């Protein structure tokens, strides 16, 4: 979009927040770059130029605006909508792969050469993987500087910088302030009651309907791993360098995120996973505009616009829970998962004295699982064992950079993983916005009540007009049911 000068200018002049994250405005006279919705008076058209990423603007010598803080804008919805090389690379960079494994590690995960990846990222985003990772490190550094009391040296290494010098240089170049000045300018509210807890605001594109989003997460919460407490969804996190807990609470205009981490180097990855969990980088205006053209679906869209897809912080966990939940009630699925957690999960301490006691067990930890210990039919026990083996050996890849089509093929090759389970995993673990469940009872019931086709085949043909947003259509159809998963918890 950044190449359409007139369209970008109109978005800047109207301060349209819908385009935040889609492109960045650089002002030639001040050498500052902003998000489109920046509240300052827009410059003259001839003094504006546009970049597809913050990293590209930084590489061109522009610094971040201190008013609109463009580095903190919602991410581009393209990385949620697409499954091509660039989108997969951006999801992996957001998860910290370049900081942990370097560009060769990123290339190995994607199955391409470093040259191919650099060429495609430069062509579309104006910056290569190292520059994109550096921009993310600068944003992480700012968060640590402003929201924690970590010594600057600790903040530097936690943000992923290899030296204090590179940390100081990056902060000065991006924000035109030293780290000490940035901390002094930070507007501090009440200090966190829990030492070591970082309190952040996660932005999103409005509107956002929290009902089914938080309702489903709370209703399906696995005891010991998740809970709804004091108006927030809380859960444990398994992260590359350690573990953590997070509390996510909906507020007007943002999601409050309270993170406690055993290793601060996991901050950027933890934020990325929390954003993915709540689908915060979606473009609800585009989604609802298309789905609203269907006269039978339009009333559901109009009633509660901005529904999101409840996703996951751990794709392997979601896949295992999807199989455990086949053909059983929500309560039974929670019970089965809780037994696995107690028997095989890693114990952790809840920093606020809640009920979070374990990390959900990894596939490796479940490798020695005794099928007889699973209180379910023999066929499903065998499916769980096969899924665990495939995940543990790498035969099945469900990471953030996975190829959605390839993952579906791998899932289809596992006996006992049928179309419904594959699409649930595609929707919530892989993040495919176009997954569809025409055989789901709730979908069929809601469709029939609204005059939509009642058979899976006919409904699938009708839903072709909803592409590429069929996952969101499913959320709207599910929302028609009077069930706890569709209501924001009140306790």
Q: Quick summary of this structure?
A:
The protein has helices spanning 5-13, 54-59, 78-81, 85-94, 97-110, 114-125, 129-147, 152-158, 164-175, 179-185, 210-219, 267-277, 284-291, 298-303, 315-324, 330-344, 378-393, 404-412, 419-430, 441-449, 456-462, 470-478; strands at 24-27, 32-34, 48-51, 63-64, 197-202, 226-229, 232-238, 243-251, 254-261. The chain is an alpha+beta fold.
Write the layout of secondary structure elements.
Blueprint: H1 5-13, E1 24-27, E2 32-34, E3 48-51, H2 54-59, E4 63-64, H3 78-81, H4 85-94, H5 97-110, H6 114-125, H7 129-147, H8 152-158, H9 164-175, H10 179-185, E5 197-202, H11 210-219, E6 226-229, E7 232-238, E8 243-251, E9 254-261, H12 267-277, H13 284-291, H14 298-303, H15 315-324, H16 330-344, H17 378-393, H18 404-412, H19 419-430, H20 441-449, H21 456-462, H22 470-478
Parallel strand pairs: 2-4
Antiparallel strand pairs: 1-2, 1-3, 5-9, 6-7, 7-8, 8-9
Helix pairs in contact: 4-5, 4-7, 7-8, 7-9, 15-17, 15-19, 18-19
């Amino acid at each position: 979009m950044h190449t359409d000068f007139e369209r970008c200018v109109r978005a800047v002049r109207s301060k349209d927040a819908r385009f935040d994250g889609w492109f960045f405005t650089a002002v030639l006279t001040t050498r500052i770059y902003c998000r489109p919705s920046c509240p300052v008076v827009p410059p003259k058209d001839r003094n504006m130029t546009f970049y597809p990423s913050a990293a590209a603007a930084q590489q061109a010598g522009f610094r971040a605006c201190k008013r609109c803080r463009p580095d903190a804008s919602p991410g581009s919805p393209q990385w949620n909508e697409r499954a091509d090389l660039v989108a997969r690379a951006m999801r992996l960079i957001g998860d910290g792969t370049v900081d942990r494994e370097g560009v060769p590690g990123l290339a190995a995960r994607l199955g391409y050469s470093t040259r191919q990846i650099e060429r495609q990222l430069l062509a579309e985003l104006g910056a290569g993987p190292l520059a994109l990772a550096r921009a993310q490190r600068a944003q992480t550094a700012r968060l640590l500087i402003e929201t924690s009391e970590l010594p600057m040296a600790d903040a530097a290494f936690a943000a992923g910088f290899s030296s204090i010098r590179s940390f100081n240089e990056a902060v000065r170049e991006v924000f035109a302030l030293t780290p000490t000045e940035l901390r002094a300018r930070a507007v501090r509210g009440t200090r966190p009651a829990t030492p070591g807890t970082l309190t952040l605001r996660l932005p999103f594109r409005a509107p956002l309907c929290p009902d089914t989003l938080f309702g489903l997460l709370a209703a399906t919460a696995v005891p010991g791993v998740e809970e709804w407490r004091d108006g927030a969804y809380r859960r444990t996190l398994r992260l590359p360098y350690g573990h953590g807990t997070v509390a996510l609470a909906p507020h007007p205009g943002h999601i409050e995120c309270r993170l406690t981490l055993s290793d601060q180097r996991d901050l950027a990855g933890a934020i990325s996973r929390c954003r993915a969990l709540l689908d915060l980088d979606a473009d609800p205006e585009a989604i609802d505009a298309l789905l609203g053209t269907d006269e039978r679906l339009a009333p559901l869209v109009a009633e509660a616009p901005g529904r999101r897809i409840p996703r996951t912080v751990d794709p392997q966990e979601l896949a295992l829970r999807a199989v455990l939940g086949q053909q059983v009630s929500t309560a039974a699925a929670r019970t089965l998962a809780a037994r696995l957690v107690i028997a095989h999960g890693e114990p952790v301490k809840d920093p606020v004295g809640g009920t979070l006691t374990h990390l959900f067990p990894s596939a490796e930890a479940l490798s020695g699982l005794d099928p007889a210990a699973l209180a379910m039919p023999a066929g499903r026990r065998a499916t769980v064992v096969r899924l665990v083996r495939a995940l543990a050996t790498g035969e099945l890849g469900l990471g953030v950079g996975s190829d959605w089509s390839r993952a579906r093929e791998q899932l289809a090759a596992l006996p006992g993983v049928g179309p419904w389970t594959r699409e649930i995993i595609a929707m919530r673990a892989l993040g495919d916005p176009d997954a569809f469940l025409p055989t789901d009872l709730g979908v069929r019931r809601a469709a029939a009540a609204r005059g939509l086709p009642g058979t899976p085949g006919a409904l699938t043909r009708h839903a072709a007009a909803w592409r590429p947003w069929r996952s969101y259509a499913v959320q709207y159809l599910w929302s028609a049911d009077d069930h706890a998963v569709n209501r924001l918890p009140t306790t």
